[in-house]
Amino acid sequence: MDNGWWGPGRRPAFPWPAAPGRPAASWRTAALWRASSWRAGGYLLATGLTGLLLCAALLLSVTAAGVLAVLLIGLPLLAALALVGLPVAAWERRLARFLDGGRVPDPHRVPDRPGLAAWLRLRFRERATWRELGFTVLAAFVLWPLDLAVAGCALAVPGYLLAAVPLLLLDGEQVNVLKLWQVHSLWTAGLCGLAGLALLPLAGYPLALAAAARAGLVRLLLGPGRQERRIGELVRSRARLVDAFEAERRRIERDLHDGAQQRLVALRMTLGLARLDAPPDGPLAARLAEAHREAGGVLAELRELINGIHPQVLTDRGLPEACADAADRSPVPVATRFVLPDRLPAPVESAGYFAVTEALANIAKHSDASAASVEGRYADGRLTIEVADDGRGGADPGRGTGLTGLADRVAVVDGTLTVSSPPGGPTLVRVEIPCAPAGGGAGR
């Protein structure tokens, strides 16, 4: 769909569709009796009245805040006025959708943390908030008179001309046409009526042009900017890459589990049967026993590799059971405790599990700890996992302890990683991931 000013064949086109799924209406279809023209008139009246009310509200609020600012009471009100563009922009985007059926995307991001403080901090830092504030001032003091003037003139001029004859008949002496000249003759009033009848089909064109320009300004200022669009595309492409990466990991895990592992199991069984048939004291029995042990070692390593790619227990039982299994395999005693309402999305569970396994691996290699704990909980739309140990501390991402890679893995799902590890210990690794329960069974 072409939303530009030039349509097919480089002819001027009316730049919005008449309705969702319909082709864009051209200037030849913008007559007053068309539904698109009535929508344009209603759109201009709605934006004009909204701007008029907004102008009065802003003048009253700014005056009150200025008077109260002397007592420092008006300062919070002035700060709140900076956010007045948020509801106004949401209303303008809804009106633009009513006009042409096309949705104007919301440029604002979702806060990383729940709560009013995080929401306010993000809104004051976003460029979209200040663009919306600027548009609000423009709509309140500049645009609404133009909207009402175009809508009023497009509908009032033909109406006044058509009403010349009835008004003259009611008055009997004269009628003021458009408040510009006086008509005393019924013949002249009839000519005015004919002129109004001729202008009536053309009244839709100024409505269409003004509404299209107004909606285009809304899309330009209140939709996502170039930076927001790039950030959104980067987020979507990262999500697609993560999904593709996880799908490939699962495919490799399945192929190894169903292919190479089964063949190694069969080979080990064959070697075990061959040991039974070989002379017990001969060199062949010793070599078969060595080959049997090697096959067992390779099978154990392959199982560890498969479990590291994507453990089956994570898919079948969820994050608490998978972390408990990882804790059982740790050389350091680990206590686990999870309080989850339900299963979480697969990428979140995968990121949480590998964060735990990487943290436990660091504890076993570098901490000299005698005990560790893994605790997970879900609250306020966030999964929080804490891995603690009583080791010597001093964990530093710059020394290659795996914390940098762990932070990158968590960041893929918009999570955060914080590490507290003073020299002498203890060490606490906290992972926070925003998510919503996906269902499929309660956590423990």
From TrEMBL:
Protein name, UniProt field: histidine kinase
Species the sequence originates in: Kitasatospora putterlickiae
Pfam families per UniProt: HATPase_c, HisKA_3, Sensor
InterPro entries hit by this protein: HATPase_C_sf (IPR036890), HATPase_dom (IPR003594), Put_sensor_dom (IPR025828), Sensor_HK_TwoCompSys (IPR050482), Sig_transdc_His_kin_sub3_dim/P (IPR011712)
Boundaries of every Histidine kinase/HSP90-like ATPase domain copy: 355-435
GO molecular function, one term: kinase activity
Catalytic activity: ATP + protein L-histidine = ADP + protein N-phospho-L-histidine
Ranges where the Putative sensor domain occurs: 43-222
Catalytic EC class: transferase
Keywords: ATP-binding, Kinase, Membrane, Nucleotide-binding, Phosphoprotein, Transferase, Transmembrane, Transmembrane helix, Two-component regulatory system
Transmembrane segments: 42-62, 68-91, 133-166, 186-212
E.C. code: 2.7.13.3
Residues annotated as domain Signal transduction histidine kinase subgroup 3 dimerisation and phosphoacceptor: 248-314
